[in-house]
Request: fold
Amino acid sequence: MSVDTATVAKIAALARIKVSEDELSAMVPELNGILAWVEQLGEVDVTGVEPMTAVIPNHLRLREDAIDADPLTGGNIRDKVLANAPAAEHGFFGVPKVIE
Amino acid sequence: MTELTDLGVAAIRDGVAAGSFTAVEVAEAFNANVAAAQDALNAFIVATPGKAIEAAQAVDAKRARGEPLGKMGGVPIGMKDLFATAGVQTTAASHILEGFVPQYESTVSAKLWDEGAGMLGKLNLDQFAMGSSNETSYFGNVISPWKRNDGGNAALAPGGSSGGSSAAVSARLCPAATGTDTGGSIRQPAAFTGITGIKPTYGRCSRWGIVAFASSLDQAGPMARDVTDCAIMLEAMAGFDPKDSTSLDLPVPAWADNLDPDLKGKKVGIPHQYRMDGMDADVAKSWDDGIAWLKDAGAEIVDVSLPHTQYALPAYYIIAPAEASSNLARYDGVRYGLRDLPDGSGLQDMYAATRAAGFGAEVKRRILIGTYVLSAGFYDAYYTQAQKVRTLISRDFMEAFEACDVILAPTAPSAAFALGENIDDPLAMYLNDVFAVPASLAGLPAMSVPAGLNREGLPLGLQIVGRPFDEQGVLNAGLAIEQRAGFTARPDKWW
Reply:
């Protein structure tokens, strides 16, 4: 499978990355080179093989249902959460208007 | 007396404990080396000499009070700038995180500070740990302290993505540094710079507070000058963390105390698929040397087969970008990091402009590949197929480990290359990790130890891969190689 300019433009839009026309035309052959190379995986017979889900067998733990059990990941740290926001306003994240 | 900056982790810790020198003297000596090398090597994004002194003072005060100093007591280290450090800018070498000051400390760095280590600074790396040469950093290339012996002055790659870590340790700017390894990012730079580095079993070190690249592969590990120092530092870094859902709930073994280079009764597997056509002659010779050394240490050498080796790299370049495209979706210009808000634009335009301005070319390339292979209609053909191949690669290792205890292979297909040599050809760059990626896909402990110099006078590394949870077996084989390789070469100081 290979990609064309329109496909790369669509992927870039899905990934929320703005790309110029020049960047698009440079990316098409690069991505096609990589995709042609990974294509060789199609040769591998994977009949009856399950896709990997956990590289080291492990089970997902449930944490105790307690509020602020771990202060590092607990609540009441609004100012810390907002400390690196580019536009924090009135205790909230500020964003440009979203309703047209 | 030996210069303090020539000492490793064990020697510094023991010297501080014995009162041969103070932790502050050590921190001052390394701070001076960091400052003197910054312009030439660019190994650090931010130096934190005050932090190093502060931690050293605390250790000296503890010693005065007769308290235990910790596994890393008095040892100043470099911290890869992928670990969140409270109050100290953490960038992942990206523009999008420039100026980001974490409000919390990563589990691994916190554990190191608890064990008495101090921070010399945040080390440069490939942007979001995506690269094999440290040429994708927004903060400029790291320059390897090594030079070829051809009389030329070509600037060489320190490897990547932990290139600041490798350059700093080999140039004696720090006795040890943290690294992270997603597909070879500890082992390949260690090999390129003549140092030692180990990636433990997936889950040994908590990922909490490490900027995520590919979560099913990312593992932290130490980079230091020898195997013993790596064992000590790994003990300080590892351990169960409930804040990482894939953290292993296992006790941390006493790796350093149990180091044993006697390999009698052990079997070392040599995977013939790694002996590829056109293999670099010096790399092939170093591998043969390694086989002879391990035989000399008492091990039996056996041939093993890893039939899906050639598919590891293409599978990795689907899985890692897929996970990266998902992980990096968090950089949205809203919660932290860069925001680019063109005049009159709305939320969607802001996302796209922010991410266009904030990510470098290689990061964008991988996000786009990842987005494509996860998109409707292509998911099964690419991503599911790659995860099935990953199962087969893991199965290959498990079958090989029925016949052997550890596997020996080269770390990288060549010695360090010149900066600029591979940067325009992503595929050529990706091939650097051809020997490192299979162990990553299988989550196995793997380390690189220096084996010798090639004809150009540049270091080559040997890689040891072990069974899951058998860091001890890997470290022991590494120590057996270290004792026989007699690697004492170091870069001539030109910086």
